């Protein structure tokens, strides 16, 4: 007697009734498809949301200015859409670095002189100390980075140069105080008289002001030498 086909095997599932035993795999596959769809519909990164802003230092470092929310190269008139220093630096180094790097170096040298002059003025040191500082820098560079010694030798820190740079810094401070004073809604003056090492009376004038946004500014506005008497009438005159 011929045998018939094998009887169908019965698969017993411990899951709920009327549910396929392969439901777990099906759910996993569906979740994977749903995840892929979400990735496809994901919006592209918005550059504006990253709050990228044009840095004014790029004017000197890379010869770029901001124009219509883009960075415009002043040399070749090309524009860079994304305000990111890497993109701007790559444009400058690949197209203009070999021709204009000496200008960048001159600006950095000038900035270094201003920084040294600022420290000398803040510490109350004589202008002639600039030459000593330069000698120290050159000696240290000769040991740490001998290949760049000539770069440090280009820094001019003579007494006359330091004096001019300190005058420039002082003039810039006065300009900033005047600009802020124009926005003062309320202000007050404080005067103090003191005597320097040469026994000369010095009148110090302090200003304190508040603008419409309640930003408080307090600065030493002026210093006047008084070689005669120092009465109240002399001060107010």
State the secondary-structure class.
Answer: alpha+beta
Helices, by number, come to 8
Q: Could you tell me how far the N terminus lies from the C terminus, measured between alpha carbons in angstroms? A: 137 Å
From the alpha-carbon coordinates, what is the Rg to the nearest angstrom? 36 Å
Shape: extended
Overall mean pLDDT stands at 79
| Low-confidence region ranges | 6-21, 46-50
- The total strand number stands at 6
How helix-rich are the residues, as a percent range?
40-55%
What's this model, at a glance?
This protein is 47% helix and 19% strand.
Give a verbal description of the structure.
It is a single chain. With 237 residues, the protein is of the alpha+beta class. Among the domains are: 52-95, no CATH class; 109-167, no CATH class; 183-236, no CATH class. It is built from eight helices and six strands, in the order ααβββαααααβββα. It has helices at residues 23-41, 58-62, 85-95, 97-123, 129-144, 149-153, 159-181, 232-236; strands spanning 64-67, 70-73, 79-80, 184-195, 201-211, 216-226. The strands form two sheets. The protein has a three-stranded antiparallel β-sheet with strand order 1-2-3. A hairpin with a 4-residue loop joins β5 (201-211) and β6. α4 (97-123) packs across α7 (159-181). The protein is extended and about 95 Å long. The relative contact order is 0.05. Mean pLDDT is 79; it is low at 6-21 and 46-50.
Feature tags:
three-stranded antiparallel sheet; 237 residues; alpha+beta; 8 helices
Secondary structure layout:
Blueprint: H1 23-41, H2 58-62, E1 64-67, E2 70-73, E3 79-80, H3 85-95, H4 97-123, H5 129-144, H6 149-153, H7 159-181, E4 184-195, E5 201-211, E6 216-226, H8 232-236
Antiparallel strand pairs: 1-2, 2-3, 4-5, 5-6
């Amino acid at each position: 007697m011929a045998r018939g086909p094998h009887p169908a095997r019965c698969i017993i599932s411990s899951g709920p009734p009327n549910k396929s035993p392969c439901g777990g795999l099906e759910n996993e596959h569906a979740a994977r498809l749903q995840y892929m769809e979400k990735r496809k519909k994901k919006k592209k990164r918005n550059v504006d949301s990253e709050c990228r802003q044009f840095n004014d230092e790029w004017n000197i470092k890379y010869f770029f200015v901001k124009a219509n929310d883009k960075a415009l190269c002043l040399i070749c008139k090309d524009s860079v859409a994304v305000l990111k220093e890497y993109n701007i630096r790559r444009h400058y180094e690949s197209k203009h670095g070999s021709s204009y790097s000496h200008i960048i170096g001159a600006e950095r040298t000038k900035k270094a002189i201003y920084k040294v002059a600022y420290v000398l003025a803040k510490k109350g040191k004589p202008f002639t100390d600039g030459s000593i500082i330069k000698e120290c820098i050159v000696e240290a560079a000769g040991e740490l980075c001998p290949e760049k010694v000539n770069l440090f030798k280009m820094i001019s820190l003579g007494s006359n140069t330091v004096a001019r740079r300190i005058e420039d810094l002082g003039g810039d401070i006065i300009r900033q105080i005047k600009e802020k004073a124009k926005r003062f809604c309320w202000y007050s003056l404080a005067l103090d008289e003191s005597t320097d090492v040469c026994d000369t009376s010095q009148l110090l004038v302090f200003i304190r002001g508040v603008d419409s946004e309640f930003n408080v500014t307090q600065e030493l506005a002026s210093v006047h030498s008084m070689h005669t008497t120092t009465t109240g009438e002399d001060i107010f005159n």
